[in-house]
Amino acid sequence: MNPINEEISSIVNRTLLTCKPDDTITKCAAAMQEAGVSSILVQEKGVPIGIWTERDSLRLDVSNLAVFDRPVRELMNAPVKSIREDISIGAAAVRFKEEKVRHLLVLSKDSTPCGIITQTDVILKHGEEYYLTVKTVEQTITVAAPIAPEHVSFSDALKIIQNAPQAAVCVLFNDNSYGIVTEKDVTRFLSQRNFPETIGEAASRPLKTIPKDSNLLEARNMLVSTGFRHLGVSDNSGNIIGLISFSGILSSLQFEYVRRINSILEERSQALRASQNSLHLAHKIIEASLDGIIIVNSQGKIDYVNPTFTHVTGYSSDEAVGQTPALLKSGRHEENYYTEMWQQLQIDGYWQGEIWNRRKNGEVYPEWLTITAIRNDAGDIYQYAGIFCDISERKNQENQIRRLAYFDELTKLPNRRLFSDRLNMAVARSKRHHERLAIMFVDLDHFKKINDTLGHNTGDALLVEAAERLKHCTRDEDTVARMGGDEFILLFPEIESVDEVTKVAQRIVEAFSEPFIVDQQNLFVTASLGISVFPDDGEDTETIIKNADVAMYRSKDAGRSTYNLFNASFTSQSLRQLEIENALRGAIAHDEFELYFQPQAAAEDRTIVAAEALLRWHNEKIGEIGPAEFIPIAEEIGIISKIGEWVLTKTCRQIREWQDKGYPALTVAVNIAPEQIKDSTFPLFVEKTLEQFDLSGRCLEIEITEGSFIDEPEQVKTNLFALKEIGVRIAIDDFGTGYSNLGYLRNLPIDHLKIDQSFIRGMFQEEGNRQLISTMITMSENLGMHSIAEGVEEQIQADFLSQGGCSLLQGYLLSRPEPATTFERHLKNGLRWPDKD
């Protein structure tokens, strides 16, 4: 069906932008800008009473600031011109010309407003490309382009635009370049409640131009591709002689002539269906066709090619006529491909398909080709008509879609989806031929640390180089894929022995032992590898992937920078680690964490002065998991900071609840991971959390380990002083088991040293332990700090610590960690421990 005969319902924009009569024109202009439309329908009680368009903004007095608040009812066009949705596109084009408007309200068959149609919609859907090619841009220009120097005031320029049929003015700048101001720009400034002083400030530049001898189809296509509403028309010297717009194109269409052309085309179609001998009667139409057309005689010689053939192939008519179509052969197809094509033409008289040809410049390209055999009255073939179009762009888009679907955009390696497809095919082949294959998991060691400290750009560059090293270590028939993050997976099909794969694994370990050079920095990132073999380690893809992952984690447990073959003996341990890792990622979202609290009391009078918040985790599938097991995994997978933030927020919320119940103020200690305490934003997070729950900093104590000072000690020091500034107390946890740089600790704002429970537990087994504890207590006093003994379980331990001057005690002797509701009993008892037995 010819587009001009289609109903406008097929092209109408059914998103109606509406406003009320008393809405200001500024509000209406802003709504039009946001919606990207050029008109707004004015309705009163659901009934259209007018329409306001970008063209109407030209009638405003921009020198009067009161213009911004004028109601749209004062400036709208009424009544609204409308058209039914079942009217043809061609009839709509005539209606625009008769009414001299650029917008028509579209009514449904029951007279209900259902959309807006514009002149632009008609131009884009009119379908008369052939006619648009026979008329030049210069022939449509009726008046010269209005031009204003850049210093002209905006209000004076607006008067020029008002009187210009193009609703626009060209702006000439001092450097002889051009810009443009249109009604759309006026509407935009109106929506912003601010008009520029000069036309130069308002102009969009540079002005996009088109030569005067270009045809209307070229002008329409340029308007569509650039998104502009106007193009400058330039003469041979580059001077602007006019403006062309969608409106100008529509005005230039001679509808009676177009209908006559449509009638001729319809007659041609009927004639072609009746007899293919009439192909030569359509010569002029063929000349204007956007498809390439080639006519070959029965001897296989080219008789005719149209201009599009020349445009696509590069061969002129003189160069092609008299030659055979072999002129275009790409060399990509076997000879039997062409033999079968001509055999089908002889039998069926028709062939259609995708074929690769070669342009004159040597470039090979794909085209969609249809060949029809043309017979004479006697039924003999005397010509072949080939119609083709270049589908290079479509193929490029298909390849791009395929790349996005099957390849990792960063490394260009196959992604998880493509790897899965290849693995399934490889497993199926292995089953058929009783072969073996192997897969290998590769995980970069400590990659997250580089990504977090040096940034994602550095991390991305490292991943690209890692991908290259993996490819250099493998065969062409192997697959190297990126699963995501810093995880890669390799497929080795048709292996004869596992030694083949272990040799590759050793090459990879050695390759990754060399530094990565990124931005002139030497970065050291090793790799942990895990290998599983089909069918030895599993009879389906899911199992062998899982077992390779298990083997990889075994390598990490063994110290990293090594490889392991899967062994069923360590499946349960590794599977539990994987199970914990997977469950841990959703623990916060599934509300599986809970805080327990253990009191800390003065050794001298047993008054409870503080408590420690301890994290507990229960997963329905796994059960109870202790912090000693899941905290290292959380650190490994990079979510320890999120867990720490959850604990800190939950602790502050609980303190707030206790204070709201009237309980005595209590300091609660929270353990903070090294990754979190060295984060420069951590003090601000603590401060905002305290403010959120209206708490004093004295309510909170941050516990860190000595190991926190190993990386970025200066940042940690800065953060501790920032925390101290907001009143938060600082404690060193597990003192005596790690870093123990006393000179460094002396310069930090530490309130408490917590003596590790390993010393308390063995204090009466070895004499040296008691002496060491006494030394720690004395040292803490000399450093101006208080000491806390954790893990106190026996009265004799408490007595020794109290007599030795220890400040606070914590342990099972006093109370086990308890949920918040149970812990409240200590608060109700006036913060006193039970008396000694």
Q: In terms of topology, how is this protein built?
A:
Blueprint: E1 18-19, H1 25-35, E2 39-44, E3 47-53, E4 82-84, H2 89-99, E5 103-107, E6 113-118, H3 119-125, H4 129-132, H5 137-140, E7 147-149, H6 154-163, E8 168-172, E9 178-182, H7 183-191, H8 199-202, E10 209-211, H9 216-226, E11 230-234, E12 240-245, H10 246-252, H11 255-274, H12 283-287, E13 292-297, E14 302-305, H13 307-313, H14 317-320, H15 335-348, E15 350-358, E16 364-375, E17 381-390, H16 392-406, H17 416-433, E18 436-444, H18 447-454, H19 456-472, E19 479-484, E20 487-495, H20 498-513, E21 516-518, E22 521-523, E23 527-534, H21 541-557, E24 563-565, H22 571-585, E25 593-602, E26 608-619, E27 623-625, H23 627-636, H24 640-660, E28 667-671, H25 674-677, H26 682-692, E29 700-705, H27 713-725, E30 729-735, H28 742-746, E31 752-755, H29 757-761, H30 767-782, E32 786-790, H31 795-803, E33 808-810, E34 818-819, H32 820-828
Parallel strand pairs: 1-2, 4-5, 7-8, 10-11, 23-24, 26-28, 28-29, 29-30, 30-31, 31-32, 32-33
Antiparallel strand pairs: 2-3, 5-6, 8-9, 11-12, 13-14, 13-17, 15-16, 16-17, 18-20, 18-23, 19-20, 21-22, 25-26, 25-33, 25-34, 26-27
